[in-house]
Amino acid sequence: APATFDRDLRADFPGMVTHDGQPWHYLDTAATAQKPRAVIDAMARALGEDYATVHRGVYARSAEMTLAYEAARRKVAGFIGGHEDELVFTRGATEAINLVAQTWGRANLKAGDRILLSQAEHHSNIVPWQMVAAEVGAVIDVCPLTDDHCIDLGAAEAMLTERHKLVALGHVSNVTGALLDAPRAAAMAHKVGAKLLLDGCQSAPHMGVDVAALDCDFYVFSAHKLYGPTGIGALWAKAEILADMPPYQGGGAMIDRVTFERTTYAPPPQRFEAGTPAITEAIAFAAAVDYVEGIGLDRIHAHEQALVARLRRELAAMNDVRLFGPADSAGIVSFAVGDIHPHDLGTILDESNVAIRAGHHCAQPLMDYLGIPATARASFGIYSTEADIDALMAGIARTRRIFGRG
Ligand code: PMP
């Protein structure tokens, strides 16, 4: 049975009941997580009694807000084992990857250089690289997957050459929950002189992350998948890499001195944060990190892995269910029930207050590889319970009856 927390965490989440007051079996945390009261309250305070702009500290409220914003940066950086000077707030993981592609990428990629991605990437770790590759004439290589849909690092090793400047991989797949052996990927990338970018959207919420131990060069993630608000995420990059990266967007707050003849830029991370930042979101992001750290990533991981194990076991016992990803998938279970379309399954499950994701999960190349248009995906969070799995399994049984499949 899952490691139980010492209190009922669901009570912390106002979003976990339906609008007519029923328990909601929310199994779409990989898309976005529900928010605990602590995060909602932190955001309300920041928008209310604490509100002012940052970096204009001639009056006390603004100076306090600046301290809170920079404390949030320190908290978020520390959460992944990084230093505050290496942590850029972005609009989300998507913007963080675009930032790296448009600044580091344009400055470092030349015609004929190569970028290694995998077949399992989210569109946000594909399209930004296609855009910069088209601009500079670089080439994208695609690493295949193993039989259980993990990134095949043996194949990656054989593909990597001195022409590769970047390896960009999902740390955990948002479709299969497969966990990458990041230190091994880093060693391979570094051996040929390439940098490693990890898309941490699906790892940061589910396991302890230490960028130094992972040995990556860039790590990106989004607050909203970590029980924080939308509209903010983070790019962590090694200090010496950030120091050499040209700015992304121009504007206020990212400059050192502006004249019409010549403008000089602020050092990182400010260089990459043009304009008034997402102040309240940053503060609520830090509150989410506090909340998660208060529970403990090890316990969260154990809790979710126990739920994954049970769900995979029960699904595997149905003879017409196809399970994707490895047995120890991190917090995510993708599956197909016979020939029932995942959208039909999701729609019928919704009638019993079970929310799953059905679709291509922004990973169409992976769907092509699997030879299917879509999967059904159940994903867990800290508030997920055995009752959610009971409701999901009952809903699947009901769907099969409706379709005359059982
Ligand atoms: N990468 C992965 C693996 C994801 O799961 C997601 C969100 N589905 C993203 C990138 C994009 O994150 P965001 O939409 O928050 O920018």
TrEMBL record:
Give the protein's function.
Catalyzes the removal of elemental sulfur and selenium atoms from L-cysteine, L-cystine, L-selenocysteine, and L-selenocystine to produce L-alanine.
First-level EC class: transferase
Q: Which UniProt keywords apply?
A: Pyridoxal phosphate, Transferase
Residues of the Aminotransferase class V domain: 25-392
Substrates-to-products reaction catalysed: (sulfur carrier)-H + L-cysteine = (sulfur carrier)-SH + L-alanine
What is the protein's given name? Cysteine desulfurase
Q: Which NCBIfam families does the entry mention?
A: sufS
Transmembrane intervals: none
Matching InterPro entries = Aminotrans_V_dom (IPR000192), Aminotrans_V_PyrdxlP_BS (IPR020578), Cys_dSase_SufS (IPR010970), PyrdxlP-dep_Trfase (IPR015424), PyrdxlP-dep_Trfase_major (IPR015421), PyrdxlP-dep_Trfase_small (IPR015422)
- Family to which this protein belongs: Belongs to the class-V pyridoxal-phosphate-dependent aminotransferase family. Csd subfamily.
